[in-house]
Specification:
mainly beta, Elongation Factor Tu (Ef-tu), domain 3, Thrombin, subunit H, six-stranded antiparallel beta barrel, 32 strands, 40% strand
Length: 467
Amino acid sequence: MALLVHDKGELQSLRYLVNSNHNIPRNLVLKLYTSSHNGDGSPAEGDVPSQTAYYEPYDASGVVGYGTAPSTGYPAIVNNRNDQDYSNQYGILLDGTRWNARTITTPIKTTTGAGTINEYTITVASVTNIAVGHYVSGGGVGANATVCAIDGNTLVLSVPNASTFSSQSLNFGVGTTTASYPEQTFTFTSAANNIYGYYLVRANNMPVSVNGVLHYATVAANTGVAKTGTTGTIGQTSITLFEKKFTPTVSGSVNLYTVEVDSSVGITTNQRVTGTGIAVGARVVGIQTGSPNDVVILDMKNTGTVSGVGTFFVNVTENVTLGMGVTHSNAIGETNAVPNGTTVIGIDEKNRVIYLSAALVNNIQSATGDTVTFGSSKVTTTANHGLVPGDVIYVAAGAANTTTTSNTYTIFETPNSSTFTTSPALAGVGSATLYSSIFFAEKFTNGPYNIQNNGDQIKVTLNVSLD
């Protein structure tokens, strides 16, 4: 049974997608494309970025130009927030707060009805073509009413009637949730050939020496993450990681964001903290060394006088992500508990539970071996990749790379400026090409537009809809 996404849910989903509430750090980037893929440049559901689709107007050739800066006047991104740097990318960085997200009702059925003020029901002349979830307007129906249930010719609405009415015309329809953005202009300084349409990607800062350059990246096995003290029960599809915590003596005053500790060994930022006088849910923001005690800064005020022992919990799941392979170091004479090919399919951070794609075939404990290793592949680039955890990109496996799945991935960790891992975890070895990941795409109705002269412009007004 598929879940129904109500219009209000669609509205919030679209707000998230376009970042109109600034709930996520990355805005969208508006880009143009010159590729005539699918015969005429029209987008298709199965499209992915490649050397033959959705490349940008970097030069006048009308063919892929990845690897060199544009010579057409196609703009470098201008940052619009202090916490973002996407100056290595090209296109127009959109401001999430400038999206106008709203739901528009399209009538599909009109009939007459009657209702009583403050009641949640109305009666209608006909229920043909009316369905649960439809918007209702007209008569004395309350604002933003929707149909919640249908019983004969009686309808139950989501809001009470605003007034008493009878034999009034009522419209029933579906809502289209739309986000629109003010017109944006691309001004060219020289020829850029045919521009077929535009697309939106989530912002990242890959430079032109990395973004879209064929086989520029290398996928290779990464060092596994070993967890000792792990437990698991035969037949179950989960394991529990060993709890790691530090318990220094703490002291502090009510309404302060600080606690003193007799030892800050093992304490790092974002750890959960519990103890007398410490706010429920408090986490570590930073650490200041001092004499005689170190001071830990928290993200919540102390609720009372802090005393006794404080417990700082290590997030033992923080370096484990979805898709990682799982292996068990079984004791001599014991059956390996984890079947071949098992991967991580879920993570419960607080309870330290890792959910697996296959059931255990033996217990995991000290007697059978309590070390479990989580493995993945890493990506390496020759130049700085410019990526940070949370960025979304498309990784395309190279022609000789038959074990890496080409797909959209989120950057998980960046050990250094030329290496990163992903979530879901990558597998396989060989070459790969990195692209910005496409969210939305649209072909120009009257295009393509042939850019030949200095001063030629393309203007784009964005409308994104969920219905």
